[in-house]
């Protein structure tokens, strides 16, 4: 190999130094841009498929329950895997997901196995969904969205969220009617929700649906008692509780136009931040 001249060596060292400085500056620029995006007030795009807070919480709770029951992990391990920003907290659950995927692959190689339907293995969608969950608080927003889209998890979550929102609306309607002493028949509720009666029957067998009915009964019951119920009861003590609630809901319905007017006036004075799932935070310092 020909020995470089002193001039050529000096030129090479200068180029190497300039390249190193450009490399470091490029890294700083990329990190700064990513942090500026992370520190913005908008919610991360990978939360958009969840539609609202309740759907997000329902999905997150389902993932935690799956990790604890099927993976046989403690609640602490599950929580750390889903929300902590240190990658080491994800490894135990990730290893379990790899074992689940291996079971699925082996079972799929056998004809007529139907491993997912027989609950022998988790589906690829479920495994992918939890895997993306693990990435959300350690990966950048664009990277997480990319994996969501590659694995079709964004569509899966949107579909789940739409189903949950519909279930929740039905539960809220049933809770309001129950407070008024009405037991809604399957076909009646199906007509209100524009779904088939079989959907209502399936919902009512679902513990999540029953839990949402109880939740909405508490929320609406407390609200109506504070706003109307006690006043109605004090004026006409002989009224039954369901009748008091019926009158309270009627008063509430008549007050909606005025409430909307006050809300519009408030919005003209400045934006009101809508509640949403907390944005997962990542450590700014690398290990």
Give structural notes.
Residues 259-287 are annotated as: Disordered. Residues 278-287 have a biased composition (Basic residues). The longest helix is centred in the first third of the chain and has 33 residues, at 6-38. With 287 residues, the chain is mainly alpha-helical. α4 runs antiparallel to α5. It folds into two domains: 45-151, no CATH class; 158-254, no CATH class. The chain has eleven helices and no strands.
Strand content: under 5%
Mean pLDDT: 87
User: How many domains in all?
Assistant: 2
Structural class: mainly alpha
Helix content: 55-70%
Which outline best applies? elongated
Main beta sheet: strand number and arrangement? none
Jot down its keywords.
mainly alpha, 2 domains, 11 helices
Summary?
With 287 residues, the protein is mainly alpha-helical. It has helices at residues 6-38, 53-69, 75-83, 91-108, 124-135, 141-150, 153-179, 186-193, 197-204, 207-235, 241-269. Residues 278-287 have a biased composition (Basic residues).
């Amino acid at each position: 190999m020909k020995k470089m001249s002193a001039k050529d060596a000096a030129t090479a060292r200068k180029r190497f130094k300039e390249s190193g400085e450009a490399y470091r500056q490029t890294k700083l620029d990329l990190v700064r841009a990513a942090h500026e995006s992370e520190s913005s007030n908008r919610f991360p795009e990978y939360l958009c498929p969840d539609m609202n807070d309740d759907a997000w919480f329902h999905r997150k709770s389902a993932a935690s329950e799956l990790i604890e029951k099927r993976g046989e992990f403690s609640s602490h391990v599950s929580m750390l895997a889903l929300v902590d920003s240190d990658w080491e907290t994800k490894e135990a659950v990730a290893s379990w997901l790899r074992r689940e995927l291996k079971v699925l692959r082996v079972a799929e190689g056998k004809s007529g196995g139907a491993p997912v339907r027989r609950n022998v293995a988790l589906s690829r969608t479920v495994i992918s969904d939890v895997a993306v969950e693990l990435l959300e608080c350690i990966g950048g927003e664009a990277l997480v969205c990319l994996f969501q889209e590659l694995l079709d998890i964004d569509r899966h979550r949107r579909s789940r969220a739409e189903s949950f929102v519909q279930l929740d609306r039905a539960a809220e309607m049933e809770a309001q009617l129950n407070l008024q002493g009405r037991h809604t028949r399957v076909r009646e509720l199906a007509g209100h929700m524009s779904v088939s009666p079989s959907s209502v029957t399936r919902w009512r067998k679902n513990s999540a649906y029953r839990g949402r009915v109880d939740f909405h009964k508490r929320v609406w019951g407390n609200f109506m008692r504070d706003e109307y119920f006690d006043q109605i009861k004090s004026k006409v003590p002989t009224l039954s509780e369901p009748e008091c609630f019926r009158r309270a809901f009627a008063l509430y319905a008549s007050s909606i136009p005025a409430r909307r007017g006050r809300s519009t006036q408030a919005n003209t004075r400045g934006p009101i931040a809508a509640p949403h799932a907390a944005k997962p935070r990542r450590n700014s310092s690398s290990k």
